[in-house]
């Protein structure tokens, strides 16, 4: 294509007319032109060759690239299989691609979770596999049962006397044949990490010969001794424990061992009639009606409060009236049985002391052998319990406090004490 114009130019030069004189010049000029043309052709040829070489080089390069691209497309790693009981994620196996592995429920993957197709057309890592999870690993079988691992479950093989999915339930027939009451129980057994069987009894039971757990009779052990007794009243032995029981009128304390009196008066659980007063006692209550003495020998009393009577003014001529008590008060003392002695039960004194001395005396009552009166200071007398009184009992004591001035009686006060002693020492 490039030679076309060059040949046309050469032909046009050859078509120049040739003369005699001018013939030598023309030949010379033709020769020059031809040499120029040859030179031109040579340079053209060289350039053409350079162009061809460049073209060939480019073609070779292009061909190389095409070969390379074709070769890359074929660079794959060998196909990977999914593990049994599992799956493989990622379908491409070309260089640079990854495959991921998962296991079905109840199985766990062992090995590489991910594998990469490397440039040397091999997968990284090792082929993983799915291993069944050991359902017995948590030692689910109780009482010495043997665990058998199955796919996604376990089975307990129970020893004699035990049943249930985890050998947790005593077999009824076996239980009855072993013991006809619940004070005997099978021990709880388990295998430790070293495979040794270890048995133990529930709290409140102890292992007896033969490997049976026998209830501890706490009442037998501790209740008989007065010092160590566990219940203040009665003890009931129970399988694995015990219970303290209180008599009627008492409530079991929060400590579960002692009994507390129920205050029927405060809780309005008494049956005292109208006009009676409710006195709470240990284990019960009493209904009382404090009454003033009836008028006698010109002496009469008036109730000044629920528990007190005051003498009305005496007629001037009545000596008997002036000798009678100026006041009579009523006092009710609840006491447990067999209280330790000596024990001060009551104190008497006066706020309106006019004379120069006070005298205290027991002037009446029942069970007087158990009481005494003593002076604690110049103005105070005390009623003292001097010997233990077993209940149930009701004791009455009348005390007198006389006020004197130069041995002349100025006034007299009477205290009527009633002690309600409960049947129990609490
Ligand atoms: Ca017990
Ligand atoms: Ca009570």
From TrEMBL:
Gene3D superfamilies membership: Complement Module, domain 1 (2.10.70.10), Laminin (2.10.25.10)
Domain EGF-like: 132-168, 215-260
Signal peptide extent: 1-21
GO molecular function: calcium ion binding
UniProt-listed Pfam families: cEGF, EGF, Fibulin_C, Sushi
Disulphide-bridged cysteine pairs: 103-130, 158-167
InterPro entries found in the cross-reference section: cEGF, ECM_structural_protein, EGF, EGF-like_Ca-bd_dom, EGF-type_Asp/Asn_hydroxyl_site, EGF_Ca-bd_CS, Fibulin_C, Sushi/SCR/CCP_sf
SUPFAM superfamilies: Complement control module/SCR domain, EGF/Laminin
Keyword terms: Disulfide bond, EGF-like domain, Extracellular matrix, Glycoprotein, Repeat, Secreted, Signal, Sushi
Subcellular location: Secreted, Extracellular space, Extracellular matrix
Presence of the UniProt keyword Repeat in the record: yes
Domain annotation Sushi: ranges: 75-132
Location (main, coarse): secreted
Family affiliation: Belongs to the fibulin family.
Protein name (record): Fibulin 7
The species this protein was found in: Sarcophilus harrisii (Tasmanian devil)
Lineage: Eukaryota, Metazoa, Chordata, Craniata, Vertebrata
